[in-house]
Description:
Elements: E1 32-38, E2 46-52, E3 69-75, E4 79-85, E5 90-91, E6 95-104, E7 110-126, E8 136-150, E9 158-159, E10 165-174, E11 186-188, E12 191-204, E13 210-218, E14 221-222
Parallel strand pairs: 5-14
Antiparallel strand pairs: 1-2, 3-4, 4-6, 6-10, 7-8, 7-12, 9-10, 11-12, 12-13
Amino acid sequence: xxxxxxxxxxxxxxxxxxxxxxxxxxxxxxxxxxxxxxxxxxxxxxxxxxxxxxxxxxxxxxxxxxxxxxxxxxxxxxxxxxxxxxxxxxxxxxxxxxxxxxxxxxxxxxxxxxxxxxxxxxxxxxxxxxxxxxxxxxxxxxxxxxxxxxxxxxxxxxxxxxxxxxxxxxxxxxxxxxxxxxxxxxxxxxxxxxxxxxxxxxxxxxxxxxxxxxxxxxxxxxx
Length: 223
């Protein structure tokens, strides 16, 4: 072939059950590459490689992207609270808005710092081979985003309804935009990644001691 630029268009049909790419973890990964090779008779073959990322996304009509998620709880004679997000799942690299509603039930109780952490949980499992009776597994977690908010107890509480006064506010949390800092939810080939929102509300009691209430919510991250 004479010197020139040559193009060879091609199509590849990927199997529907092909594991998606998993990148950004230190312990394990799943990656794909295109490989092109030019064979030469009298010299070394020329080889080109290009990374290929396979991702799975939620359908735009998926209910997790349109339905809100909320949790509510009460500590008798101390505090009532509810926490909600506009959707049950979040798209990788975007942000999440968290709405808080806190009602003190104890006179003199002051609300302290409210901490929100976005946690990423990793579970790795090596299934036993034929004839082996044990399974190797490992679990860890990391904080990928955080937010702290101090309630101004000096302001008059909001009137939430005819029977309750408390605090209502929203917090906006930006999520990481790189795979080194955050990985999408997945469960494939012994690799399981999940995400949770973790909340802690600090309470300053009238007698001087400090206590806390906490809550965890599972929130899938989609590519």
